[in-house]
Amino acid sequence: MPTPAKELSYLNEKIVACRLCPRLVAWREEILKKKPKRFAAESYWSRPVPGFGDPLAELLIVGLAPAAHGGNRTGRIFTGDRSGDFLFETLHRFGYSSSPRSISREDSLVLNKVYITATVRCAPPNNKPSPEEIAHCRPYLIEELRILKNIRVILALGRIAFDNVWQTVKLTFQSQGKSFACKKPSFSHGIEQKLPDGKVLIGSFHPSQQNTFTGKLTQSMFDSVFSRINTLITIG
């Protein structure tokens, strides 16, 4: 029987090879023609970006999508942009990451008890994936949730990720002939909902540069979410 690490490796190979969304494939090629000067000499990943982290994770973090000159450039989720800097500094302080900086796929960073993934695996124009593109990527999240059997808490970064996690869990239950009677709460920062399988879904504002620079998401607000996560994992 394959280990979780091997299953995730197989799944990530499928993700990287995916070409289901013509608009996103075309956008990846367009990005290569518009590299900013600071990255002009770099070779871009320019493929779907797979998940990354601990196969025995207890915390699953779900973002929106790779940034055009972040994950789409480096090939690692939340790596190479300000959102990732904010996230990994927090993960490091709370003991989930061996380093406060995620620089590239080749660095020595190791995640502990956390796995990071995204709603959509390719960088979308204007950071706005279509409903069809979200639906195309949903089976990958379903598989990640199946493989990551130790997950106790799911942290959704932003409204789109929150809604997608909710829909993914609901569809999974329904496909198994199980009842899913929960009513989806309205998204807000720090919103918390226990799911029928015992996992806890938490919502947070996305650590985008726009949110952190304007103060919509402060470090103390983000820390409060992770403090709650640690409590839930400890008592879970």
UniProtKB/TrEMBL annotation:
> Pfam families, alphabetically?
UDG (PF03167)
Question: What are the UniProt keywords, alphabetically?
Answer: 4Fe-4S, DNA damage, DNA repair, Hydrolase, Iron, Iron-sulfur, Metal-binding
Is the keyword DNA damage assigned to this protein? yes
Spell out where the chain crosses the membrane. none
GO process annotations (BP): base-excision repair
Please name the InterPro entries in this protein's record.
UDG_Type-4/5 (IPR051536), UdgB-like (IPR044147), Uracil-DNA_glycosylase-like (IPR005122), Uracil-DNA_glycosylase-like_sf (IPR036895)
Question: Sorted alphabetically, which Gene3D superfamilies does this protein's record hold?
Answer: Uracil-DNA glycosylase-like domain
Is Endoplasmic reticulum one of the keywords UniProt gives this record?
no
Coiled-coil annotated residue ranges, if any = none
Query: Where does the record place the Uracil-DNA glycosylase-like domain?
Result: 50-226
Name the Gene Ontology molecular function terms of this record.
4 iron, 4 sulfur cluster binding; DNA-deoxyinosine glycosylase activity; metal ion binding; uracil DNA N-glycosylase activity
- Where is the signal peptide, in residue numbers? none
Query: What SUPFAM superfamilies does the record point to?
Result: Uracil-DNA glycosylase-like
Similarity comment text for this entry: Belongs to the uracil-DNA glycosylase (UDG) superfamily. Type 5 (UDGb) family.
The name this protein carries in UniProt is Type-5 uracil-DNA glycosylase
